[in-house]
Amino acid sequence: MLDINILPPLWKDKCFFHPAVSPWIDGTLMMTMQIIRGSDFFGPIEWCFSKDNGNTWSIQENILPLKSRQLEDGLWEGIADVRPFLHRPTQKIIAIGCNTYYSDQTVLHNDKAQYPVYATLSPDGSWSKKHILRGKCFERYSNYRVACTQLIVMPDGDVLIPLYLQENGAANRFSVCSILCSFDGELLKVKSLGNILSFPVNRGFIEPSLAFFDDKFYMTIRAEDDHAYYAVSEDGVNWNEARPWCWDSGEKLKTSSTQQHWLKLNGALYLLYTRKSTENKDVVRWRAPMFISRFDHQNGTLLRDTEQIVFPLVYHNGLPNLLGNFHVSELPDGNALVTVGSWWKSKPHHTEVWSAQIKVFKAD
Length: 364
What we know:
By secondary structure, the protein is mainly β. It has strands spanning 2-6, 16-23, 29-38, 41-50, 61-62, 69-70, 76-87, 92-102, 108-109, 116-121, 131-132, 141-145, 152-153, 159-167, 175-183, 188-193, 206-213, 216-222, 228-233, 243-244, 261-265, 268-274, 290-296, 301-302, 308-311, 315-316, 319-320, 326-330, 336-344, 350-360.
């Protein structure tokens, strides 16, 4: 059983979304987030830090290299879906997401090329310039995105990154894969691209996340057929066929176009997700509550009797909260911190940043 401690909500007056935490230096945690102004319409990337394990945070500052810019055609290019990761060999934070496009009327434009962008944070608190993750292997793809991800820093310092991509001419359908990159403290350089996993339903496979456990690599994948999928790899680059997430009873996990993420804790691997339940029939895509279950990696199933609620379904002025975009950070003390922007789709928008400390329960 897991001990889940939900901390008091943060920044109720800021409309922050996409909160994501990474360990930084000397026990400090850093967080990235951005204001939500509408569905898939976000403000600038901001960051702050905590010296007390996420209980209190510094005042937010903009990450200037990742600021929006106006283009010649009148559109704005912004950055979204950023997640930070500590690259321990260089002591740099890699904050990586993808570019996106908006009009002045906050309308999202998906007809322009999208690609991963990142900046790095040094131990002295300074940010690098913005970089684009490029490679000849992407030339056949009109879009390739790193969004809301979990990547892996390998023992030799290489970085394994999952992404989803769209072939030139494909009509809004994506596939997933992973790339192995070198990192010298400043630049990510693609060394290899793995096999492609595709799915012929709606937008296909999107928003993959990675974990390494018991000498194997695992990828969990968002889909749009009211299920979710995972794949297994021996090397993190070449993947077996994706399989739907199922309970140990054989029943498929019922979830609707929402990301999932991994947590390694005390020698076990867990999955965090949202799903259909008896209480959330009126919630868009069943995006609350948020659950966690232990993954039986030997049999490839979720153990139903281990399921617990991480964050609850809460109504505000008659509206349910949505918890779809979240992040899981494994901390140096062996515990974990889960962060999410709890969003009520009211006018004006109302969000709260929720965080939960998770550790293995130990009886007195």
